[in-house]
Amino acid sequence: MQLRVNEISVRYGTSEILHDVSLKIYAGEIAAILGANGAGKTTLLRAISGLVRPIKGNIELDGKHINDLSPDVIVSLGISHCPEGRMLFPEMPVHKNLELGAYLRRRDHDLVEKMRQQVYELFPILKERKDQLVGTMSGGEQQMLAIGRALMSNPKLLMLDEPSLGLSPLIVRSVMDAIVIIKERGVGILLVEQNAAESLRIADRGYVMETGSIVLSGTSESLEHDERVKQSYLGT
């Protein structure tokens, strides 16, 4: 798997939110995107998912342009998006939420069952709570479910938008460690996360966004030691 974002720009109304953004990500690696609120991180994920259209530039998955494809086709090609806020169905039980993540694969019963078991192996609490209504679960359990639902489509690339938001430090560490396991299964991961320290701890590479542009990129180690990153994002 190889995803390339080539100099895309995105506009909402008269405001240009992304300006000539380029990045790449490969199978089995984590690329973290750091930046303050309003930097354009979520818009970038939405562009890759097909939820918004670039006004210039292109996005390629394994050499195929996906700019003009619908979101459902992009999911079927292997890109799964776990949005900020989780967007779960609180009045439905855990297992039904997971099944919705496999909607486009629903005819491949063996694959759906395989992915379900992988999710339960990754997050055993979801198997224990499979009949529980989602609205009665803790924030950490709901975040695990949101990631699990995104995995049910058997993605090549998993995009995570603020998975640690509102979680305790202990649960954040648990979720981040699960993301590493997903990477080790060969999935590429694009991680948008304001917890820069945890992001860089698990990432292979990182990109720093400011006001719609990527202003800095490099290995996670190089970014951890960059004075601008330390002052702006690591609090040191």
CATH topology term of the domain at 1-78 and 157-162 and 187-236: Rossmann fold
The CATH superfamily label of the domain at 1-78 and 157-162 and 187-236 reads: P-loop containing nucleotide triphosphate hydrolases
Q: Quickly count the helices.
A: 10
CATH class of the domain at 1-78 and 157-162 and 187-236: Alpha Beta
Strands, total number: 10
Please specify the SSE layout and strand pairing.
Blueprint: E1 2-12, E2 15-26, E3 30-34, H1 41-49, E4 56-61, E5 64-65, H2 71-77, E6 79-82, H3 94-101, H4 109-122, H5 124-128, H6 139-151, E7 157-161, H7 169-184, E8 188-192, H8 196-202, E9 205-210, E10 213-219, H9 220-224, H10 227-232
Parallel strand pairs: 3-8, 3-9, 6-7, 7-8
Antiparallel strand pairs: 1-2, 1-4, 4-5, 9-10
Helix pairs in contact: 3-6
Task: Walk me through what this model shows.
With 236 residues, the chain is of the alpha/beta class. It has a domain of 134 residues: P-loop containing nucleotide triphosphate hydrolases (Rossmann fold). Helices cover 38% and strands 27% of the residues. The protein is built from ten helices and ten strands. The chain has a six-stranded mixed sheet with strand order 6-7-8-3-9-10, sandwiched between helices. Helix 7 links the parallel strand 7 and strand 8. The protein is globular. The N and C termini lie far apart (36 Å).
